[in-house]
C-alpha cells in the first residue's frame, strides 16, 4: 500500500514539474510559479485531475492554457487522461506567486 502512495506522489510531482513548462503567454512566467495550480491528483488508473484558477475571470487565454496543460501533463508517463477544473475559490492574488515569479515580474516587497 505504501508503494502505491509513493508512486502516486512521484507521479503528481512529475505532473507539477511538467506544468512548469506551461507559460502564461501574457506574463511569460509558468503557471506553477504564478500560483495558478491549486491541486493535482492522479488516481491509480492514471487519471489526472488538475484544479487551477486564472488571474482574472475573463482571461482570453484560458483555452490556450487548457490545451497546453493537457498536452504537458498528458506527456508524463503513467498519466492516461487529464481533466482541468477551473475554480475561482480561493481567489487568486499576487500572494500566491512564488518568489521567483515576483522577481521575474519586478514586483517589490518580496
Question: CATH H level: which superfamily?
Answer: Fe-S cluster assembly (FSCA)
Whole-Å distance between the termini?
Answer: 42 Å
Q: Under the CATH scheme, which architecture would be assigned?
A: 2-Layer Sandwich
Which fold name fills CATH's third level, the topology?
GMP Synthetase, Chain A, domain 3
Rg, nearest Å? 14 Å
Assigned CATH class: Alpha Beta
- Strand arrangement within the widest β-sheet reads 1-2-3
Q: What share of the residues lie within helices? A: 25-40%
Shape: globular
| Tally of separate domains | 1
Total strand segments: 3
Number of helices: 3
Helix-strand category: alpha+beta
Largest sheet: number of strands, sense, barrel closure: 3 strands, mixed
Ordered list of secondary-structure elements with their pairings:
Blueprint: H1 2-19, E1 37-42, E2 47-52, H2 62-74, E3 81-86, H3 99-104
Parallel strand pairs: 2-3
Antiparallel strand pairs: 1-2
Helix pairs in contact: 1-2
Characterization of the model:
- With 110 residues, this protein is of the alpha+beta class.
- It has one domain (2-97): GMP Synthetase, Chain A, domain 3 (2-Layer Sandwich).
- Helix content is 34%, strand content 16%.
- It contains 3 helices and 3 strands, in the order H-E-E-H-E-H.
- The protein has helices spanning 2-19, 62-74, 99-104, and strands at 37-42, 47-52, 81-86.
- A 3-stranded mixed β-sheet has the order 1-2-3.
- Helix 2 (62-74) links the parallel strand 2 (47-52) and strand 3.
- Helix 1 (2-19) packs across helix 2 (62-74).
- The relative contact order is 0.20.
- The model has no long low-confidence stretch (mean pLDDT 91).
Amino acid at each position: 500500500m505504501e508503494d502505491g502512495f509513493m508512486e502516486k506522489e512521484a507521479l503528481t510531482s512529475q505532473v507539477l514539474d511538467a506544468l512548469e513548462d506551461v507559460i502564461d503567454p501574457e506574463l511569460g512566467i509558468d503557471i506553477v510559479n504564478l500560483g495558478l495550480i491549486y491541486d493535482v491528483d492522479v488516481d491509480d488508473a492514471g487519471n489526472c485531475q488538475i484544479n487551477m484558477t486564472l488571474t482574472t475571470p475573463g482571461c482570453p487565454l484560458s483555452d490556450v492554457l487548457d490545451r497546453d496543460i493537457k498536452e504537458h501533463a498528458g506527456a508524463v508517463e503513467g498519466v492516461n487522461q487529464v481533466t482541468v477544473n477551473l475554480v475561482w475559490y480561493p481567489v487568486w492574488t499576487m500572494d500566491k506567486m512564488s518568489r521567483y515569479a515576483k522577481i521575474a515580474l519586478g514586483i517589490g516587497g518580496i
